[in-house]
Amino acid sequence: MKVIEGGLNQEVLDIIEPFSNWFFNQNRSLIKIKGDRDEGEYYTSNEYLESINREKHVGFPEVSHGIDLSDTEVTPLSFRDDINKTTADLNTFFGTKFNAVKMYYPAGGYMGWHNNHNVPGYNILLSYTQNGDGWFRYQDPLSKEIVTLYDTPGWTAKVGYYGSKEEDDKVYWHCARAYEERLTFGFVVPDEDMWEMMCEDLYSQ
Ligand SMILES: [Fe+2]
After folding, report:
1. Running along the chain, 205 residues long, what does each successive block of 10 average in pLDDT?
2. Taking a C-beta distance cutoff of 8 angstroms, is the pair 89, 201 a contact?
3. How far is the CA of 109 from the centre of ligand 1 (A)?
4. CA of 58 to the centre of ligand 1 (A)
5. Burial of 177 (C-beta count, 10 Å sphere; 0-12/13-18/19+)
6. C-alpha 103 – ligand 1 centre gap (Å)
7. Residue 122 Cα, ligand 1 centroid: separation in angstroms?
8. Considering its fold, how many domains does the chain have in total?
9. Rg for the chain (alpha carbons), in Å?
């Protein structure tokens, strides 16, 4: 997983910055947050990672404190038009039709260690924190080193590959943490060429 350095393309910023500005002006107490807010340190720790039964792990995170903004049961009706419009604008920008995962974490939010082996593919993550007080953490599939990629204030982009269960050297364990409110748009792209074109689009020009 690598961070796209040097700022994002203005055209994509013109989509996601108005979205975060709008979002943080809404009443977020209307969002029905799921999960236990006090367990974030544990579920993003080496101790928890070591305790997971890797044979039985399904790929999705087993624990989290945050929600997918596409989930109509937890996201207020009044939010939907703006969320759907941003998704549509991102698809137009990328020239794709992917249904991006749209995560919202409250302060204290997290997504526990998991590997997404059930939906393998190339990925693009766009994350926002106002002050940079959050991170994405992964285990290098080969060296087993654990690396934490800290947010910086505003929007940041990361790109990488999540392997399937059959790709031993590419199974990609990762987790995330939000000490302040955090947004993430996540795309999984099956086709490498298409993903490379999307990555190109993200660089500032
Ligand atoms: Fe994930």
Report:
1. 86 97 97 87 97 94 95 95 96 87 96 95 96 97 96 95 92 97 94 93 83
2. no
3. 14
4. 12
5. buried
6. 11
7. 12
8. 1
9. 16
25 CA → ligand 1 middle, Å: 27
pLDDT given at position 168 = 85
In angstroms, what is the span from residue 114 Cα to ligand 1's centroid?
6
Q: Are 122 and 188 in contact (CB under 8 A)?
A: yes
Structural tokens at position 109: 């939010």
Taking alpha carbons only, the member of 111, 127, 100 closest to residue 188 is: 100
Query: Could you tell me the CATH number of the domain that includes residue 153?
Result: 2.60.120.10
Distance, in Å, from the CA atom of 118 to the CA atom of 1, rounded to the nearest integer, reads 18
Distance between Cα 56 and ligand 1 center (Å): 17
Domain that holds residue 112: 2-202
| Angle at 64 (CA atoms; ends 189, 129), nearest 5 degrees | 70
Please give the distance, rounded to the nearest whole angstrom, from the Cα atom of residue 19 to the centre of ligand 1. 22
Torsion from C-alpha of 49, 53, 59, 65, nearest 10 degrees: -50
